[in-house]
Amino acid sequence: MYLPAQTIASFFLILNEPDHPPRYNIAPTQPVLAVFQSPAGRRGVPMRWGLIPHWARDIKIGAKLANARSETLHEKPSFRTAFNRRRCLIPADGFYEWVAVKGRKQPYFIRRRDGNPLAFAGLWEVWVAADQSELVSCTIVTTAANREMTPVHHRMPVILEPGQFDRWLDPDNQNPRSLCDLMRPMRDGGLVLQAVDDYVNRTGNEGPRCIEPAATFPTPSSPPEPPAQMNLFED
DNA sequence: CCAGACGTTGTT
DNA sequence: GTCTGG
DNA sequence: CCAGACGTTGTT
DNA sequence: GTCTGG
C-alpha cells in the first residue's frame, strides 16, 4: 500500500511556562519544562531536551535521544535506568508534525480538542560533565499513532491524563511492567490538527506565527470512525 | 579478555 | 554503567 | 524534528 | 549523503 507522504516525529512543541516568555518552537537540545516527583512534592524544572545517559562521554549523544520508544524502553541501556527511577511529565499546549509534499515540508500543529494542555510522558537523567558540572536532560516517550494522528504520522508522544500522573511519576514504583498500560496511544477523538505556516520550520523562528493556520493546506482527513470495538487498552 | 556501542525517525 | 561482538 | 553545512591555512 | 546546531 502506498501511504501518503511521510512525516516526522520530533514533537517540536509549544510551552507556556509560568514566569517565562511563551515558547512556540522548542527544538531538541533546547530547555523544556519537565515535572518530576521529589520527596517534597512535584517540581517543575527546565531540562535539556534530548536525554544524555549518565555514562555518556559526550553531550552530543543527547541530540539523538529526543524520543524513546515505549515498546523497548525497558531494555535500552540509554533509557533503562531512567525508566525505572526517573520518570517525568512534560507539559505543552501542543506539538508539531511534518508531512513532506512535493519537496516541501508541511507542518501541522496538534493540540487537545478540549483546549487543555498536554502532558507528555518523559524520562530524565543527570549527567556530570568533565568539569564536574551537572546537566539535567529529558526525553519524550512515543507510542503508535491514534486515529487523528494516523494521517500525518505512525507515531505519537505518550500523552497522560491527570488521573495517571501519580502512577507515572511515583519514583518508588520501579516495576516497569506495571506501567505498560500507561504507554498507549491517546484515546481517539481527543486531538485536533491544524496545518500551519512553515515559519515554524526554522528553529530560530519564535512566536504566535508558528501556529498561524496555513492558507493553502487543509487539515488531513481522518479515516472513518471504526465500528464499535472491544476495549483493547483497558482504561 | 578488550573495544565499541549505547537511539529514533523515516527513507529505500 | 552494561551489553555485544570479536 | 528541520535547516544548513560539508575545509584548510594563516591572520588578528 | 551525512553530520551538526538549534
Automatic annotation (TrEMBL):
It holds the Pfam family SRAP. One of its GO terms (molecular function) is single-stranded DNA binding. GO terms for biological process: protein-DNA covalent cross-linking repair; proteolysis. The keyword Hydrolase applies. InterPro entries: SRAP (IPR003738), SRAP-like (IPR036590). Residues 204-235 are annotated as: Disordered. Keywords: Covalent protein-DNA linkage, DNA damage, DNA-binding, Hydrolase, Lyase, Protease. Its EC number is 3.4.-.-. Belongs to the SOS response-associated peptidase family. This is Abasic site processing protein. It comes from Acanthopleuribacter pedis. The lineage of its organism: Bacteria, Pseudomonadati, Acidobacteriota, Holophagae, Acanthopleuribacterales.
